[in-house]
């Protein structure tokens, strides 16, 4: 199979009707925060137990086409001693891997951040691919204020995102391109729209500059919403604001836009996705690549006890099924 055929086959598997992606790639500090919220200490053993339970959810593959893993999980065995990528593949789910190495301050641009991880990326991808990963994820973050993000931050982050995507594709790995415009703050939905448009425009310019094949990538953006402290917009307002920005700056060649949940509640993120898919014609598949919004109820149900595995799997199945319905605008609360 040529590299292009390999990429197209992975895209066909990921972008299927009624399905989306489960983002279970929380880094060690992030999963520790999520576990703490449900009274569980994060250790190698608890992470293995929890992730093994949710990935073994019966028929998870009906609504989940891909799972993004963290490096540790890619190398772990399930509770039944099956390699995690193999377990996922047996569910008809494509294993993916988070490859950025976190973020830190962007020098001379106070308040902005830049994502790390380009050095040695090719070598790491080779290893991940040998372990079964067929797609990757890289996350940039953009803070919103009256003055942030700076043009410098937008441009530099777009550049690294595009370089990552180009390396992935050269190795037959589908890149998920994730420019996250953060929900934190008290900005208006109009300000979020303005920043999202600026960011996405620069991201697609950089992707073009680096000759990234738009047909074999997935975009993972934030929905356009008001800041968390500014109150809520209705699902119709979110869908309208999001689609008007995306129509301007996301080329129709991109096969799938898989939104992150970014701090929306599980119910909100399903309602918003449903509204997006109910709003007339759009040239891309609009789906989910949720972390918190898919997993919060399952983590609560598990609460660190193996005896709760059935309850955790039922909670996971429920959110996956409802988001699967929202994929075609067929969800009703
Ligand atoms: P959330 O849906 O919790 O935002 O996580 C998605 C993700 O992968 C962030 O990088």
UniProtKB/TrEMBL annotation:
EC category name: lyase
Protein's pathway: Carbohydrate degradation; glycolysis; D-glyceraldehyde 3-phosphate and glycerone phosphate from D-glucose: step 4/4
InterPro entries (UniProt xref): Aldolase_TIM, FBA_I
E.C. code: 4.1.2.13
Pfam families, A to Z: Glycolytic
Top-rank taxon: Bacteria
UniProt KW keywords: Glycolysis, Lyase
Single Gene Ontology BP annotation: glycolytic process
One term of GO molecular function: fructose-bisphosphate aldolase activity
Family in the record: Belongs to the class I fructose-bisphosphate aldolase family.
Full protein name: Probable fructose-bisphosphate aldolase class 1
Organism (species): Marinobacter nauticus
């Amino acid at each position: 199979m040529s590299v292009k055929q390999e990429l197209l086959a992975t895209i066909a598997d990921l972008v299927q009707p009624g399905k989306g992606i489960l983002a279970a790639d929380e880094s060690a500090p992030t999963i520790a925060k999520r576990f703490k919220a449900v009274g569980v200490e994060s250790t190698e053993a608890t992470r293995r137990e929890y992730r093994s339970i949710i990935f073994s959810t019966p028929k998870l593959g009906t609504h989940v086409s891909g799972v993004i893993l963290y490096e540790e999980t890619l190398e772990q065995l399930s509770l039944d001693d099956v390699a995690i990528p193999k377990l996922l593949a047996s569910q008809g789910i494509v294993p993916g891997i988070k490859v950025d190495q976190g973020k830190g301050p962007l020098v001379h641009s106070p308040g902005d951040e830049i994502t790390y991880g380009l050095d040695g990326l090719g070598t790491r991808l080779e290893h991940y691919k040998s372990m079964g990963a067929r797609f990757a994820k890289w996350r940039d973050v953009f803070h919103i204020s009256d003055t942030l993000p700076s043009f410098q931050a937008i441009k530099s982050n777009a550049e690294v995102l595009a370089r990552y995507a180009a390396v992935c594709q050269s190795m037959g790995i589908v890149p998920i391109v994730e420019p996250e415009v953060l929900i934190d703050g008290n900005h208006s939905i109009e300000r979020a729209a303005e920043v999202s448009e600026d960011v996405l425009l620069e991201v697609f310019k950089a992707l073009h500059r680096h000759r990234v094949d738009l047909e074999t990538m997935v975009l993972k953006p934030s929905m356009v919403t008001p800041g968390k402290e500014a109150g809520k917009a209705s699902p119709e307002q979110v869908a309208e604001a999001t689609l008007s920005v995306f129509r301007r700056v996301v080329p129709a060649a991109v096969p799938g836009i898989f939104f992150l949940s970014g701090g929306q509640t599980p119910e909100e993120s399903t309602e918003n996705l449903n509204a997006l898919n109910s709003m007339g014609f759009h040239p891309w598949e609009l789906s989910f690549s949720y972390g918190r919004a898919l997993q919060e109820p399952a983590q609560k149900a598990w609460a660190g006890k193996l005896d709760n595995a059935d309850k955790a799997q039922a909670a996971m199945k429920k959110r996956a099924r409802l988001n699967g319905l929202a994929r075609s605008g067929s969800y009703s609360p």
